[in-house]
Amino acid sequence: MKQYLDINDIENLPETIKEAIELKKEPFKHKELGKNKTLAMLFFNASLRTRLSTEKAAKNLGMEVMVLNVDSAWNLEFDEGAIMNLGTAEHIKEAAQVLSQYADVIAVRAFPGLVDREQDESEQVLYGFQKYATVPVINMESSTGHPLQALADAISIEELSFKKKPKVVLSWAPHPKALPHAVANSFVQMMQKREVDFFITHPKGYELNPEMVKDVKVYYDQEQALEDADIVYVKNWSSYKEYGKVLNTDNNWMLTKEKVGNAKFMHCLPVRRNVVVEDAVLDSENSIVIQQANNRTYAAQIVLKKMLEEL
Ligand code: CP
């Protein structure tokens, strides 16, 4: 694997999911593969799971790991031909090439600004690293996608294996802040590649990018969408149409035990209890959010393994 910017970078998804589940049984089996190899992780934004699960994955493979919180480095410039007489001190051209001397794989987390849709969709940071790095680049959540999360989600659903073609519903839920579309986008892309009956539900005004949703059926009635669901995946996102705006904080959209019923409950975490979902769901046996977070390690590990095999 030369890069993991998007779930479409996975050549054989069913095989990759199977391999990740195998890695989970013997996480240290390929410890020699990463010997004398280094992963550099760059964080433009906060993280708990992505940071630690990716580090654990790399170490399981015998790699060294370096972490850089970008706010403690030089301010980066991404514009071509910029006259750098203002706040930026280093251009991505040098930064990415220099990092490529220090590391064998570079992983980047850079969230959207949620102000300018065109600017966010240009994925300036992620594609800047892709363009100028001379080593493989991993997306640890960009403006528009979170492919490591989506792979962990697919692994988690595969592990449930209680039904041949489960009904999976992605439900929007309220949140006080404007959140990105990345997790929802990648989950939608992933579910379209899996053997599931997939539906989306959200209030009017929260339509995701139609290029992601394609012909997935969308319900504006949450109760109707959740009927007979086997898996309920919950996530908040801000409006795409009125870009980055919070249009609705109606707590009638919060997920309750009654709404989830017998379905398995998924969320990428972190989650605001009793805003997005009530305690009774998260604390129930139907919640698989902890297993889902555990699978972040094996999603990252299978991606790193495939990269190391081609170095
Ligand atoms: N789900 C997820 O990406 O978690 P973090 O933001 O803590 O990394």
From TrEMBL:
Any GO MF annotation of the entry: N-acetylornithine carbamoyltransferase activity
Keyword ATP-binding: no
Class of enzymatic activity (EC top level): transferase
Pathway the protein contributes to: Amino-acid biosynthesis; L-arginine biosynthesis
Reactions that this protein is recorded to catalyse: N(2)-succinyl-L-ornithine + carbamoyl phosphate = N(2)-succinyl-L-citrulline + phosphate + H(+)
Positions of the Aspartate/ornithine carbamoyltransferase carbamoyl-P binding domain: 4-159
Ligand binding (N(2)-succinyl-L-ornithine): 141, 175, 235, 272
Keyword line: Amino-acid biosynthesis, Arginine biosynthesis, Transferase
InterPro entries to which the protein is assigned, alphabetical: ArgF'-like (IPR043696), Asp/Orn_carbamoyltranf_P-bd (IPR006132), Asp/Orn_carbamoylTrfase (IPR006130), Asp/Orn_carbamoylTrfase_sf (IPR036901), Asp_carbamoyltransf_Asp/Orn-bd (IPR006131)
Domain Aspartate/ornithine carbamoyltransferase Asp/Orn-binding positions: 183-304
EC number of the protein: 2.1.3.11
Residues annotated for carbamoyl phosphate binding in this entry: 47-50, 74, 109, 146-149, 268-269, 296
Quaternary data: Homotrimer.
Stated role: Catalyzes the transfer of the carbamoyl group from carbamoyl phosphate to the delta-amino group of N(2)-succinyl-L-ornithine to produce N(2)-succinyl-L-citrulline. Is essential for arginine biosynthesis.
Family stated for the protein in its record: Belongs to the aspartate/ornithine carbamoyltransferase superfamily. SOTCase family.
PANTHER family the UniProt entry points to: ORNITHINE CARBAMOYLTRANSFERASE, MITOCHONDRIAL, ORNITHINE TRANSCARBAMYLASE, MITOCHONDRIAL
HAMAP family in the cross-refs: SOTCase (MF_02235)
Protein name, per record: N-succinylornithine carbamoyltransferase
This protein's encoding gene: argF'
